[in-house]
Amino acid sequence: QISQYDLPLSSDGYIDLLVDGQAKRVGITRAHLEEDAGKNVHDLPDCTGVDFNRASVPLLEIVSEPDMNCVEEVMAYARSMRQLVRYLGISHANMQQGHMRFEPNISLWIFDESEPDGGHYTPIVEVKNLNSFRALERTVAFEIDRQTEQWQEDPSGYRMDKMAKQNRGWDDVRE
Fold first, then answer.
1. Other CB atoms closer than 10 Å to residue 46's CB: what's the count?
2. 13 exposure class (CB count in 10 Å sphere: 0-12, 13-18, 19+)
3. Rounded distance between C-alpha atoms, residue 106 and residue 123, angstroms
4. Whole-model pTM above 0.90?
5. Rounded Cα distance, 82 and 86, in Å
6. Who's near 65: CB < 8 A, 6+ residues apart?
7. How far apart are CA 95 and CA 114, in angstroms?
8. SS (H, E, C) the chain
């Protein structure tokens, strides 16, 4: 993957949302271009294929700050971002046709007054290539519940400072 990560098109912005009648501001870290070189496909029984379908097609990645605290805020952000992208004429933003994807990074803040910072984060889980609002909503809700259960099973071990970031996929049919 070729990325313009270090030379973003813009940075340090925000988008204002309305969530349950309340104003919410979500910071935008940066917007940069990326280009896929191709991807390996492991769907075949005896070999690995290479998919060049999206090769040389630039995509705009918009990276937000970790300002969202619930599923409703995530959904308001996603819908507002799609509306903005359409309004600006950047894309049709039809998720089912691959014009727009979301890749949420989910981590929970566990309050604990006995810790110096007042608590700690659970490990970050990034869920890749979500192609519908339904998948986004269900993924975030599932991951919040899953991380809560993991933390309850191992409060001292299930922490960001003790575990690496994970990348996961989502199967909307299976879940």
1. 4
2. middle
3. 8
4. no
5. 6
6. 26, 27, 28, 29
7. 44
8. CEECCCCCCEEEEEEEEEECCEEEEEEEEEEEEEECCCEEECCCCCCCEEECCCCCCEEEEEEECCCCCCHHHHHHHHHHHHHHHHHCCCCCCCHHHCCCCECCEECCEEECCCCCCCEEECCCEEECCECCHHHHHHHHHHHHHHHHHHHHHCCCCCCCCCCCCEEECCCCCCC
Taking only the tens place, the pLDDT of each residue in 108-150 is: 999 999 989 999 999 999 999 899 999 999 999 999 999 999 9
Report whether pLDDT(55) > 90.
no
Q: For position 2, what pLDDT does the model report?
A: 66
Measured distance CA(107)–CA(124) in Å, rounded: 5
> Torsions phi, psi of 98, nearest 5?
85, 10
Name the token pair of 7: 């030379």
Rg (the chain; Cα; Å)? 18
